[in-house]
C-alpha cells in the first residue's frame, strides 16, 4: 500500500500541474475573447458615431427600452455588487439586503421624478451634460461650473474603485499577477473602447456585460448553494451559528439611523451619479424610461439577494477570509463551484465594474470638455483627451492612494455618496420649485460640501446617521433659506422653463 502511494505521488503532482495549466489557459482564452468583443464593439461603434458632441456624448438620444434598461442597470451594478455586497453581508448580515435592494430599487421612482423631467428638458433645450441643465436654469456659468466640479471630484474615487476591483478579480483568477497590474490592464482596455465609440460603445457593451453579469450571479448562487448542501442546509447552518446576521441590527451595525441613512443615500444619491444622470438624456422616448422604471426594481431585488446570502453563508463555510472582506464572494465560488463556473463568475464581476467604469469615464470627460468655457471647439477630441488623462489619473490612484483596509463600500460611502447626495436637493428644486434662486443653489452646495469635508477630518456629532445625510439635510435648509431671501427669476423665464 505504501509502495503504491509513494509511486502515485509524483503522478498526482503532475496531474495537478497540468490541471492548473489547463484551467489557466481556459481562463486566458475566455478573458481574451471577452476583451476582444468589447474592443470590436468599440471599433464598430466608432464607425456608427457621428462627429457631433450630441452623437458622441449621448448616442444621438437614440436608446430604446432594451438598451436603456441594460445600460442603466449595468452602469449601476459595479464592483461592490460582486465584491462589496457579499463582504458587508459577511460581517453585518441580512440588513445589507434590505438596504441595498429596497433602497436601490426605490431609485426607480427617481427615474420618473428626475429622469423624466431631465429627458424632457434635454430634448427641448439640447442639453448634453447634467451641469448644463443646472446652470441654464439661471443662465449662470458659476453655478454650472460648481455643479460640474463637484460631480467630477466625487466621481473620480468611484471610477478608481472599479479599476481596483478589476485588479482584485484578475488576481483571484491568476494569483501570480498583482492587483495593480490587473487594474492597469483593465483600465487601458476600457479607455480604448470609450475613446473609440463614445456613448454608443458604452451602451452597446453594457448590454453584453449586463447579460454576462446576471447569468454569472445566478450561477454563483446555484453552485455555492449546491456545494454547501443546498439552500436550506446552508441557511440553517448560518442561522444556528450566528442568528444576529438574520436580524436588522446585523451584529449591531444596522441601527435605525444607519438603516435610514443608507435608504436615503441610495434613493437620492444614485440619480446624481453623472453616468446615470447622462443616461436620462439618451432615451429615445418616454417609453424607454418607463420600461427601465418598471423592470429595474425587479432585477435589483433578485440580483442583490444572491451576493448577500452568499456572504452570510460564508460565516460558517470552511474557508479562510484573509482580512479583506471584499474577497468573500470570489473565495466562496472558487471553493464550492467548478472552475469553469468560477471563471464565468469572475467574468461577470469584470462586466459589472467595467460597465460602470466606462460610463463614468465618458460622462465626467464629457462634462469637463463641454462645461468648461475655455473649450469651445472640437469638443469630441477634447473629450477623448480627457478620457485618456482621467485613465492615467485612475492608474495613479491605484498605484499610490488606495487603502485596502477601508474596503470598497467604505471608500464609496466616505467619498462619492456623501459628496454627490448634496446635489440632489439642488437638482430637485431646479426641476420643480420655481422659488429657488441661483444664490440658494450655490450656498446650498458650498455649505453641504463643506460639511462633507469637515466630517471627514473633524469628529463632529452625527447622532447615529451617516455624515452624508446630515450634509443633505443642511444643504436643503440652507438652499431654502437663502432662496427665500434672494430675488426670484422673472415669471416669463420660469414659465418658459417649466413648460413641458
Question: Helices, strands, pairings?
Answer:
Layout: H1 2-48, H2 53-58, H3 65-76, H4 79-92, H5 95-105, H6 107-125, H7 130-136, H8 141-173, H9 179-227, H10 231-241, H11 256-269, H12 274-282, H13 286-303, H14 305-313, H15 328-336, H16 339-371, H17 379-400, H18 407-420, H19 423-432, H20 438-457, H21 467-484, H22 491-498
Helix pairs in contact: 1-9, 1-16, 3-9, 3-12, 3-13, 3-16, 4-5, 4-14, 4-16, 5-11, 5-13, 6-12, 6-13, 7-8, 8-9, 8-16, 8-17, 8-18, 8-20, 9-14, 9-15, 9-16, 9-17, 12-16, 16-17, 18-21, 19-21, 20-21
Explain what the structure shows:
This protein has 500 residues and is an all-alpha fold. 79% of the residues lie in helices and 0% in strands. The chain is built from 22 helices and no strands. It has helices spanning 2-48, 53-58, 65-76, 79-92, 95-105, 107-125, 130-136, 141-173, 179-227, 231-241, 256-269, 274-282, 286-303, 305-313, 328-336, 339-371, 379-400, 407-420, 423-432, 438-457, 467-484, 491-498. The model is unreliable at 1-19 (pLDDT under 50).
Amino acid at each position: 500500500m505504501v509502495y503504491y502511494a509513494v509511486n502515485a505521488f509524483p503522478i498526482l503532482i503532475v496531474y495537478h500541474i497540468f490541471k492548473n495549466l489547463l484551467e489557466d489557459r481556459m481562463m486566458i482564452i475566455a478573458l481574451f475573447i471577452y476583451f476582444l468583443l468589447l474592443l470590436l464593439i468599440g471599433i464598430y461603434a466608432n464607425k456608427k458615431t457621428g462627429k457631433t458632441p450630441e452623437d458622441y456624448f449621448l448616442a444621438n438620444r437614440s436608446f430604446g427600452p432594451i438598451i436603456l434598461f441594460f445600460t442603466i442597470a449595468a452602469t449601476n451594478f459595479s464592483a461592490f455588487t460582486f465584491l462589496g455586497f457579499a463582504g458587508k453581508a459577511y460581517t453585518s448580515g441580512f440588513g445589507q439586503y434590505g438596504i441595498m435592494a429596497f433602497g436601490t430599487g426605490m431609485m426607480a421612482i427617481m427615474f420618473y421624478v428626475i429622469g423624466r423631467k431631465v429627458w424632457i428638458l434635454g430634448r427641448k433645450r439640447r442639453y448634453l451634460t447634467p451641469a448644463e441643465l443646472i446652470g441654464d436654469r439661471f443662465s449662470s456659468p458659476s453655478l454650472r461650473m460648481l455643479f460640474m466640479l463637484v460631480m467630477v471630484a466625487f466621481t473620480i474615487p468611484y471610477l478608481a474603485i472599479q479599476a481596483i476591483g478589476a485588479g482584485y478579480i484578475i488576481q483571484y483568477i491568476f494569483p501570480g499577477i498583482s492587483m495593480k497590474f490587473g487594474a492597469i490592464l483593465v483600465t487601458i482596455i476600457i479607455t480604448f473602447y470609450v475613446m473609440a465609440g463614445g456613448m454608443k460603445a458604452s451602451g452597446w457593451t453594457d448590454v453584453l456585460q449586463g447579460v454576462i453579469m446576471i447569468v454569472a450571479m445566478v450561477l454563483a448562487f446555484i453552485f455555492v448553494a449546491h456545494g454547501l448542501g443546498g439552500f436550506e442546509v446552508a441557511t440553517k447552518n448560518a442561522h444556528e451559528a450566528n442568528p444576529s446576521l438574520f436580524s436588522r441590527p446585523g451584529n449591531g451595525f444596522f441601527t435605525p439611523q444607519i438603516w435610514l441613512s443608507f435608504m436615503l443615500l441610495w434613493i437620492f444619491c444614485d440619480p446624481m451619479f453623472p453616468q446615470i444622470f447622462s443616461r436620462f438624456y439618451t432615451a429615445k422616448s418616454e417609453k424607454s424610461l418607463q420600461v427601465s422604471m418598471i423592470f429595474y426594481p425587479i432585477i435589483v431585488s433578485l440580483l442583490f439577494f444572491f451576493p448577500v446570502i452568499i456572504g452570510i453563508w460564508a460565516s460558517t463555510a470552511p474557508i479562510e477570509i484573509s482580512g479583506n472582506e471584499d474577497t468573500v464572494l470570489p473565495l466562496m465560488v472558487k471553493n464550492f463551484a467548478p472552475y469553469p463556473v468560477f471563471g464565468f463568475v469572475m467574468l461577470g464581476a469584470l462586466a459589472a465594474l467595467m460597465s460602470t467604469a466606462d460610463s463614468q469615464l465618458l460622462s465626467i470627460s464629457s462634462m469637463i470638455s463641454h462645461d468648461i468655457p475655455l473649450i469651445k471647439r472640437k469638443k469630441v477630441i477634447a473629450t477623448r483627451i480627457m478620457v485618456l488623462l482621467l485613465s492615467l489619473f485612475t492608474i495613479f490612484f491605484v498605484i499610490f492612494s488606495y487603502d485596502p483596509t477601508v474596503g470598497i463600500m467604505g471608500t464609496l460611502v466616505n467619498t462619492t455618496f456623501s459628496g454627490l447626495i448634496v446635489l440632489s436637493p439642488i437638482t430637485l428644486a431646479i426641476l420643480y420649485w420655481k422659488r429657488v434662486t441661483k444664490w440658494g443653489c450655490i450656498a446650498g452646495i458650498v455649505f453641504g460640501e463643506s460639511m462633507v469635508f469637515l466630517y471627514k477630518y473633524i469628529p463632529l456629532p452625527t447622532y447615529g446617521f451617516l455624515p452624508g445625510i446630515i450634509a443633505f439635510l443642511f444643504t436643503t435648509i440652507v438652499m431654502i433659506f437663502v432662496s427665500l431671501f434672494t430675488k426670484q427669476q422673472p415669471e416669463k423665464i420660469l414659465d418658459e422653463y417649466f413648460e413641458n
